[in-house]
Amino acid sequence: MNDLLKGVYVARVTTESGTVSKKLMVRR
């Protein structure tokens, strides 16, 4: 269960940071 939760958490963080980085690049 811990591995699954970690995978989901990492996936969410990666997606969120990816979206933020895209927005920052668009602003720049």
What's the short story on this structure?
With 28 residues, this protein is mostly helical. The chain is built from 1 helix and no strands. The protein has one domain.
Major beta-sheet overview:
none
The helix content is over 70%
Strand content: under 5%
* Beta strands, count: 0
Shape: rod-shaped
Whole-number count of domains: 1
Question: CA-to-CA gap between the ends?
Answer: 40 Å
Based on CA atoms alone, the radius of gyration comes out at 12 Å
Mean pLDDT: 84
The unreliable regions are none
Following the backbone from N to C, one meets helices and strands in this order, namely H
> How many H/I helical runs?
1
Q: Which structural class do you get from the secondary structure elements?
A: mainly alpha
Report what the structure shows.
The longest helix has 26 residues, at 2-27. The protein has one helix at residues 2-27. 93% of the residues lie in helices and 0% in strands. The protein starts with a helix and ends with a helix.
Write out key terms for the chains shown.
28 residues; mainly alpha; 1 helix
